[in-house]
Amino acid sequence: QALLARYLGGRGGRAGWRTMEEESQILRSLVLAGPLACLVASSLAVPMLGWGQMVPGGDYVNAWWNWWSGDVLGVLCAAALGADCVVTPVSSNSLLEKSGLFARTGRTRIGSPYVIAEMTAQLAAGGTVCGYEANGGFLLASDFTREGRVLSALPTRDAILPIVAALAAAQGRRLVDLSANLPARVTHSDRIKDFPTAHSQAVVAFLLAGDAPAQMARIGHWFGAIAGNPVGLDLTDGLRMEFASGAIIHLRPSGNAPELRCYTEADTAQAAEALNIAALALVRNGLATAALAG
């Protein structure tokens, strides 16, 4: 896949990527080296999984089209390892807790250093400890023993282990069946670009002004129409709002760009995406103005 992306990227300009000067050349290169090259992995993997009888012949198209997000794969990997404690950033899917598969869970700010720090702290409570990020990286804080063999601790992002663990856990079943017993929770993320960090911080501060009842009333005023009554807040990294409907809206000022990031969660992909669009529209069309006005 990487080799194809390099080859296709070079075709974006008449003399390769080093001499691309026109917008059309750059755009053509990005389209070829990006989405098109990314199809290589699924196009090769699905037939191989079919050969191994892990994807039925009639399910090829579905398997090729659907992708697992990293936080779902992280739960499946941790379950396959039999982890006692699992740590992940606050933006990851709440199916981690709702699955009831683990004795302990921990939530952190977004970023592997925070996950590693919390995993290290959790080691003091005993048991096996691992962590994951929504981008698919998986981390082991302790050794894991399965069938007399030891998988040594590796507190850095491992992209191979989740794939291998899912394949091993399938044991002849369809890969899609692995997630069938997990809670139906889907996340979606987007952002408002060119949104100054100070404006993002003002939006969060505006919603959190006053005591707890005042905060809930203000959040309900702005988001109640699209998500229902607010029932809980998490300030681990930004403002994560939970609603009685089961919806989650998480607003977070970006730490490395002038952007306001929004993570939403619902029972279906369509609902999560629609909630995200509606939440960002509210910020753009009124909430940001009210927050900056003080």
- Give the distance, in angstroms, between the N- and C-terminal Cα atoms: 50 Å
Radius of gyration over alpha carbons? 22 Å
What series of H and E elements makes up the topology?
A: HHHHEHEHEEEEEHHEHHEEEEH
Report strand order across the widest sheet: 2-1-3-4-7
The description of the largest β-sheet is: 5 strands, mixed
User: Can you count the helices?
Assistant: 11
Calculate the mean pLDDT score and round it. 85
* Helix content class: 40-55%
What percentage of amino acids are in beta strands?
Answer: 15-25%
Which segments are poorly predicted (pLDDT under 50) over 5 or more consecutive residues?
12-17
Shape: globular
User: How many DSSP E strands?
Assistant: 12
Name the structural class: alpha+beta
Molecular structure report:
With 294 residues, this protein is an alpha+beta fold. It has 11 helices and 12 strands. It has a 5-stranded mixed β-sheet with strand order 2-1-3-4-7, with helices on both faces. Helix 4 crosses helix 7 (161-170), helix 9 packs across helix 11 (269-293) and helix 10 crosses helix 11 (269-293). The longest helix has 29 residues, at 23-51. Mean pLDDT is 85; it is low at 12-17.
Tags for this entry?
alpha+beta, 12 strands, globular, five-stranded mixed beta sheet, 294 residues, five-stranded antiparallel beta sheet
Write the layout of secondary structure elements.
Layout: H1 2-10, H2 23-51, H3 60-65, H4 70-81, E1 85-89, H5 95-98, E2 104-108, H6 112-122, E3 129-132, E4 138-140, E5 144-146, E6 149-151, E7 154-158, H7 161-170, H8 175-178, E8 186-192, H9 197-207, H10 212-227, E9 230-234, E10 239-243, E11 248-253, E12 260-266, H11 269-293
Parallel strand pairs: 1-2, 1-3
Antiparallel strand pairs: 3-4, 4-7, 5-6, 8-12, 9-10, 10-11, 11-12
